[in-house]
Amino acid sequence: TEFASACISKILSLYRKINNPKTVPSSVILIGHSMGGLIAKRLLAYPSTINLTNIAITLAAPLEAPVVNFDKI
């Protein structure tokens, strides 16, 4: 989750370097399949990305009972 959070911050910072402020997004939409869906769900509540992510689209993600829990809760 920390790596994905850093990636989101970096992607949005690259958009800020564009000279046209009308094209700079303030958030991202996350799409994740399987374990990627779990990461997307966690990023919706992750402190450093809570304001940078609004929507998570998951496909075949074990959201109710993950096989392995990588993040400490």
UniProtKB/TrEMBL annotation:
GPI inositol-deacylase PGAP1-like alpha/beta domain location: 1-72
GO cellular component, one term: endoplasmic reticulum membrane
Database matches in SUPFAM superfamilies: alpha/beta-Hydrolases
Enzyme Commission code: 3.1.-.-
GO biological process, one term: endoplasmic reticulum to Golgi vesicle-mediated transport
A family per Pfam: PGAP1
Keywords, sorted A to Z: Endoplasmic reticulum, Hydrolase, Membrane, Protein transport, Transmembrane, Transmembrane helix, Transport
Bilayer topology annotation: Multi-pass membrane protein
Single GO MF descriptor: phosphatidylinositol deacylase activity
InterPro entries named in the record: AB_hydrolase_fold (IPR029058), PGAP1-ab_dom-like (IPR012908), PGAP1/BST1 (IPR039529)
Record localization: Endoplasmic reticulum membrane
Top-level taxonomic group: Eukaryota
Keyword Transport included in the entry's annotation: yes
Family under the similarity heading: Belongs to the GPI inositol-deacylase family.
Role summary: Involved in inositol deacylation of GPI-anchored proteins which plays important roles in the quality control and ER-associated degradation of GPI-anchored proteins.
Name by which UniProt lists this protein: GPI inositol-deacylase
Taxonomic lineage from the root: Eukaryota, Metazoa, Ecdysozoa, Arthropoda, Hexapoda
